[in-house]
Amino acid sequence: MIVTENLDIAYDQTLIVKQLNVEIPPHKITALVGANGSGKSTILKTMARLMKPKSGHVLLDGKAIHRLKTKEVAKQLAILPQNPTAPEGMTVIDLVTYGRFPHQRGFGSLTQKDKEVILWAIEATGMEEFAYRPVDQLSGGQRQRAWIAMALAQETPILFLDEPTTFLDMAHQLEVLNLLEELHEKEQRTIVMVVHDLNHASRYAHHMIAIKKGTVVKAGTPMEVMQPDIIEEVFGIQCDIIQDPRTGLPLCLPYAISRSQKEPVIV
Amino acid sequence: MKNDTVNQHSRTWVAMMVLVVGVLAIVFGIALSISVGAANIHLSTVWEAIVHYNSNQTEHAIIRDLRLPRALADVLVGASFAVAGAIMQGMTRNPLADAGLLGLNAGSALMVAVCFAFLPGLSYNSLILFSFLGAAVAAGLVYGISSLARGGLTPVRLVLAGAAVSALLTALSEGIAIHFQLSQELAFWYAGGVAGVKWSQLKVMTPWLVIALVGALLLSRSITLLSLGDEVATGLGQKTVLVKMVGTIIVLLLAGVSVSAVGPIGFVGLVVPHFARFFVGVDYRWIIPCSAVIGGGFMIIADIGARMINPPYETPIGVLFALIGVPFFLYVSRKGRREIS
Ligand SMILES: Nc1ncnc2c1ncn2[C@@H]1O[C@H](COP(=O)(O)OP(=O)(O)OP(=O)(O)O)[C@@H](O)[C@H]1O
Ligand SMILES: [Mg+2]
C-alpha cells in the first residue's frame, strides 16, 4: 500500500504540490485526473521515487520509499513516465528486455523465465508483428504499447502509468484498459494511472483522485468524484452526469466552459 | 517470435566479428606502423628486434625506443578517446557528445600548457594529474553554463557551451604558448602528436587508461539503461546518480590522461562510437568494447597515414581526423536534427 504524508513537491523553488495526503488503495485501480499542468505527473513521479519531495514522505508498506534500495522498489513498482524516448535504433524486443533489469544480476543474461515474461508482455500488448522494429520508427500508438510492454515485463505488483492511452485509437485504448483490468482481476495488481478521459476513469477505476493546482479536490469512488460541481471546480467545465445504461456507472457529458475559466479572446 | 534467439545470436556474432577483425587490424597496424617512417624498416627486422634485441643495431634502437611506444600509444589513446565519447553519448543521450566537443580536451591542454610555462620540469605523473584536473574544470564549466540557462540542459546547449569553453581555453593555451615562447614545444603537441611518446610516459599512463577502460566495460550495461532516460532508468532500479558520477570520472581519466600524452585529438570520440553503433546496435555492452577496438585501429592507421602523406614530414594526426570527422559530424547533426533541437 502507498500513502503520502504532507508531501511538498517543487521544481527548483516553485512549489507545485502542497501538503498532499493521498492513499492508494491496494489491489485496486486508481485514476488520477486533473487539468493540464495540475501536477498529476509530478505526483506520480514522486510516489514512484523518481523525484524527491521537498518535504514529507511517501510510504510503501509503511517504509519511506526514498530510503529503500531503488532496485528493491523496482521489483515492487513499475512506472511508465509520460513521454519516454528510446535511443535511436533500439528495437521493441530490446526495450521490453530492459524491463527485466530489476530481476537480473551482474551482466544480465536472460533466464528461461525472463524470456517467457518478455514474450508474454509483447503478446499482451499486441506488439508481436513489431517486435524487431526500432521503437523510434513506430507510430505514436505502437510506441506507447511498446513502453507499456516494458513496464509489464517488470512484473511488479504495483503499476504506475502516466497517460497510457494517449496516442491510441479507440480500439487500442480499450485494449490497454482491458489489459489493466485483467491484470487487476487475475493478479490483484495495484494500478495507478493518469487519464484524461473521465468516462474511462469511471468505467475502469475503483478509486479516483481529482487534482487541481497540486492539491486534492476530491478522492473517492467514481460515483463520489463524478459530480457536476466537482468537475466544474477541477476542469472548469459544466457537464451533465448521466448513468451508463450498460454498467450503471456515471458518465460525464460536458456542454459548456465555465465563465471564469474562459480565456479572453483577442481579435 | 521464434526467431528471437536467432536475432540475438546474429548481433552477438556481428560484435564478435568486429572485435576479431579490429584486433587483427590493430596487430597488423602495429607491425606496419613500426616499419613505416622516415627510415623504412623491413618487417623481418621488426620481428628480429622484438625477438632478439641487439642494442648495437640502430634499426633495433629506433624500433624499440621510438616506433614501438608510438604504436602502442596510438592504440591505447585511440581506444580511450573512442570509449570516452561512447560513454558521454550514452550518458547524456546526445549523439554529439565527445571529449573534444564538450571542452574536456581543451581544458586538459590548457593545464598542460600552464604546467609547461610555470612548472617546467614537472614529472609526467604530476602532469597527468593536472591534465585530469583541467578536463574536470572544463567539464564543470560547460555543464554549469549549459544548465544555468533557462530551460535547463539540452543537447544543443551542451554542444554550444562546449564550443565556447573550448574556444576560450584553447585561446588561453595559445596565449600562454606565445607569451612564454613555448610554441616550439607545444605546437606539434597541440595538433595531436603521438610522435613524442616515450616508454617512461607509456608506463605511467597505461595503468590509468587500462583501469578506466575496464571500468567502462563494467559500467556498460548501466549506460545502456541510462540511455533510456533518467526516469526510466531509475524506475528500473538503476542508481542513476552513482552511475553518472562513476561514468564522469572514467571519462575524465580517459580524456585527461590521453591529452597529457598526445594532445587534444578531436573527433575520434565523436565518430568511432557511431561506427560501433552502426555494426552492433544500441547495447553498450557491445558498443564500448567495439569502440575501443575500432578507435585503436583507426588511430594507428591514421598515424601511419600521417607519416605517409608528405614524407619525411609528418602531417598532424589531428588534422587527418578533422578531415574525416567534420563531414561525419555534419552528417550526424543533420540526421539527428529533430531529436537534437
Ligand atoms: N521539469 C520541470 N521544471 C519546472 N517546472 C515543471 C517541470 N515539469 C513540470 N513543471 C511544472 O509543474 C506543473 C505540473 O506539471 P505536471 O507535468 O505534473 O502536470 P500534469 O498534471 O501531468 O499535466 P499534463 O496533463 O499536461 O500532463 C506545471 O505547471 C509544469 O509547468
Ligand atoms: Mg502529465
From TrEMBL, chain A:
<keyword id="KW-0547">Nucleotide-binding</keyword>
<dbReference type="Pfam" id="PF00005">
    <property type="entry name" value="ABC_tran"/>
</dbReference>
<dbReference type="InterPro" id="IPR003593">
    <property type="entry name" value="AAA+_ATPase"/>
</dbReference>
<keyword id="KW-0472">Membrane</keyword>
<keyword id="KW-0406">Ion transport</keyword>
<keyword id="KW-1003">Cell membrane</keyword>
<keyword id="KW-0813">Transport</keyword>
<dbReference type="InterPro" id="IPR017871">
    <property type="entry name" value="ABC_transporter-like_CS"/>
</dbReference>
<protein>
    <submittedName>
        <fullName>Iron complex transport system ATP-binding protein</fullName>
    </submittedName>
</protein>
<dbReference type="GO" id="GO:0006826">
    <property type="term" value="P:iron ion transport"/>
</dbReference>
<keyword id="KW-0408">Iron</keyword>
<keyword id="KW-0410">Iron transport</keyword>
<keyword id="KW-0067">ATP-binding</keyword>
<dbReference type="GO" id="GO:0005524">
    <property type="term" value="F:ATP binding"/>
</dbReference>
<dbReference type="GO" id="GO:0016887">
    <property type="term" value="F:ATP hydrolysis activity"/>
</dbReference>
<feature type="domain" description="ABC transporter">
    <location>
        <begin position="2"/>
        <end position="238"/>
    </location>
</feature>
<dbReference type="InterPro" id="IPR051535">
    <property type="entry name" value="Siderophore_ABC-ATPase"/>
</dbReference>
<dbReference type="InterPro" id="IPR027417">
    <property type="entry name" value="P-loop_NTPase"/>
</dbReference>
<dbReference type="InterPro" id="IPR003439">
    <property type="entry name" value="ABC_transporter-like_ATP-bd"/>
</dbReference>
<dbReference type="GO" id="GO:0005886">
    <property type="term" value="C:plasma membrane"/>
</dbReference>
TrEMBL record, chain B:
<feature type="transmembrane region" description="Helical">
    <location>
        <begin position="315"/>
        <end position="332"/>
    </location>
</feature>
<feature type="transmembrane region" description="Helical">
    <location>
        <begin position="126"/>
        <end position="146"/>
    </location>
</feature>
<keyword id="KW-1133">Transmembrane helix</keyword>
<feature type="transmembrane region" description="Helical">
    <location>
        <begin position="208"/>
        <end position="229"/>
    </location>
</feature>
<feature type="transmembrane region" description="Helical">
    <location>
        <begin position="12"/>
        <end position="34"/>
    </location>
</feature>
<keyword id="KW-0472">Membrane</keyword>
<keyword id="KW-1003">Cell membrane</keyword>
<keyword id="KW-0812">Transmembrane</keyword>
<protein>
    <submittedName>
        <fullName>Iron complex transport system permease protein</fullName>
    </submittedName>
</protein>
<keyword id="KW-0813">Transport</keyword>
<dbReference type="InterPro" id="IPR000522">
    <property type="entry name" value="ABC_transptr_permease_BtuC"/>
</dbReference>
<dbReference type="InterPro" id="IPR037294">
    <property type="entry name" value="ABC_BtuC-like"/>
</dbReference>
<feature type="transmembrane region" description="Helical">
    <location>
        <begin position="249"/>
        <end position="272"/>
    </location>
</feature>
<dbReference type="GO" id="GO:0033214">
    <property type="term" value="P:siderophore-iron import into cell"/>
</dbReference>
<feature type="transmembrane region" description="Helical">
    <location>
        <begin position="284"/>
        <end position="309"/>
    </location>
</feature>
<comment type="similarity">
    <text>Belongs to the binding-protein-dependent transport system permease family. FecCD subfamily.</text>
</comment>
<dbReference type="GO" id="GO:0005886">
    <property type="term" value="C:plasma membrane"/>
</dbReference>
<feature type="transmembrane region" description="Helical">
    <location>
        <begin position="100"/>
        <end position="119"/>
    </location>
</feature>
<dbReference type="Pfam" id="PF01032">
    <property type="entry name" value="FecCD"/>
</dbReference>
<feature type="transmembrane region" description="Helical">
    <location>
        <begin position="158"/>
        <end position="180"/>
    </location>
</feature>
<dbReference type="GO" id="GO:0022857">
    <property type="term" value="F:transmembrane transporter activity"/>
</dbReference>
